[in-house]
Fold these 2 entries.
Entry 1:
Amino acid sequence: MELNARVSGLQRTDAGFRLSTADRTYTARQVIVATGPFQIPFVPPLAAGLDGSVTQVHSSAYRSPEALPEGPVLVVGGGNSGFQIAAELARTRPVELSIGSAYPALPQRLLGRDLFWWLTRLGLMRVTAESRLGRRIQARGEFVIGTDRRGLQRAGVRFRPRLVDAAGRTVRFADGSSREVDVVVWATGYRSDHSWIDVPGVLRAGRVVHDRGVTEVPGLYFLGLSWQHTRGSALLGWPLTIAAVALTPAAVRRATRVTRPA
Ligand SMILES: Cc1cc2nc3c(=O)[nH]c(=O)nc-3n(C[C@H](O)[C@H](O)[C@H](O)COP(=O)(O)OP(=O)(O)OC[C@H]3O[C@@H](n4cnc5c(N)ncnc54)[C@H](O)[C@@H]3O)c2cc1C
């Protein structure tokens, strides 16, 4: 096991695969890519229009209200991170929340049980990506869980529609309204990054081509992709499976060789 070794390249060879890190090359007959669905914090390009004096933080770097400069904050993004950060900040300062796409809200607990208990019992975590229901859920988008608009309104959060422009210290919203900002928290999600994978046939328009994690390239598998097979595929606590693959640690050791520079 190698810690702190980012794989920067993956190529196919006659014998299998070659993986490169900063100082080593690995060869392997089989590769499982389990790099997670949340690799690159995404900030919309219009953020570049904001003046350097505006404090900008992506939700992945947000730690606490105290870590931000004092004063009003604009939170951009109406997913779980945006709602939760807005709720926390609203306890001590004025907050506006810009929501580009509104997701349905669900309570964290229902009739004394955690929401995921219900979702599991109702079979919703096992709904497959290709099923009719699975496709509908994917098209509809995520749920906001445990916080909702009414609660935030009570806490004093002011809602704004989608942010459409940013120039200097002024941001403009889809309804034509605008305001000056000092601090912006971008709760605008993540993108996956598979640019280091240089194996023909694996990526199409940046997306992994696979069937339940099995790619068309023999020996190359993915694990933990969003909706890889079911809703639970990229969540903690649901069984991670690759279709039709049985790899034991011994088999992985036999199939892997490490080359260190002389
Ligand atoms: C804000 C947020 C909140 C979440 N809340 C929940 C929740 O409440 N419940 C829940 O079930 N799930 C939640 N999730 C999802 C949860 O994080 C994922 O389900 C889980 O982390 C996926 O595990 P993973 O091992 O597949 O990927 P990760 O945990 O993302 O691990 C991937 C690993 O791969 C490494 N890596 C990436 N690229 C390379 C490379 N090129 N070379 C080498 N290593 C690399 C990364 O450094 C990382 O260590 C949340 C995610 C986010 C972003």
Entry 2:
Amino acid sequence: MLVLKSEIAHETALPDIGLHIPEIMPDEFHLGYFGRFATLSGFENEKVADAFLREGFSDGIMQSAYNLMPLKLAKLLNISPDDFVKNHTLVTLLRAAKHTEKKNHHPDVITTLGNKLAKRHASFCEKCVHEDIDYWGVSYWRRSHQLTGVGICLKHNENLCRVGTRNAIYEQPASHLRNHNFLLNDTGVKDAENPYVIKFMELINDFMDMEANINGAALSKLLANKAKQLDLRIHAEGSRKLLSDLLIEKYPPGWIELHFPSLQLKKQGEFFHEYDGALISSFSQSVTKLLLAIPVLLPDADSRILSHSGNIKPVVQPKKPVLSQNQLIESYVSNQGNINQISASLNRKSSKISAKLRLLGCPALGTVDKATLSALNAFYNGAPLAEAMLTPNININVFSEILRVSGAHVKKAINFRQSL
Ligand SMILES: [Zn+2]
């Protein structure tokens, strides 16, 4: 790090007290780290510190078009951009769930997401602050406390404190604690007793530890399948219940208000793209919204579901009850041997229906022309075969084929048509 300092010194005016590059802490959120760096190095304010980093670390990685905090800090700390973004920012959570697209540290991705918080406020745990000061001598902002939907410290099972003032994250949590500049998320622990919230927090934490990004399209498809089984509506039109309705039903209202306030304004039955869109794979899914859907649609799933790639078929379609011979024949007669109509009325594939009916001596009659049908009718009602075969315009091939495979039900099916 000293070498770095002398490299920069000749082109940048350093602050009087010298550059101080603190170690980055485990789970430390990068914007909080930047605040610590700026303060410790004696920069007048964050803007000056930021300008210093931009000038001091512009090189091949940082094209002049990009002035990206995570990349600058990675460079300052000599950590690979990939590792830095993965371990110290919220980019993986905030970006859309497209695992095949650009890497998380790609400038196009972090340009808009690199300095964002996932919540509307910065969060810290009072107990962690005291422990950190005792152990490290400083307090710092933990990334795991900044995750959407996480209102408690999972280590201490305590409500998180939240600070909503602008740029609060550049100042150590200990100073906000000292100045009483925070609100207590007092429903945090209570909300976290909700089984869906517990599952959500588990998933989001495991997601942050994952090596690869989520395959949003595959996960979305899996969730949509499950939603259909639960008879939920996945499209805008219709009147059935939606995923967004189910979310409001299952998650605690206080928790929704704090973490997903837009959901609170939704009316029952109103399609809400931001949430219901998670089930339409052509959407650019939000990781958070996919994670939000998992506990309510697949309450038994564990974090392995986050690696779902679409290669396996974990959702087994429920088996349809076996059709009885009587049901088949009844439908054959009432639909006058029309296979398409029979398969539609029984909700089965037409190829299967047709094969089963043939075994029962019920050939397809839907495409048989009028003349042949009336010849068959005449025959079944007692006319001699030779006479029936002389019917004008009869298709002899079809006529004889039907007679060859047919059983008693053909007569009924044909009569059924005539009697209507
Ligand atoms: Zn804590």
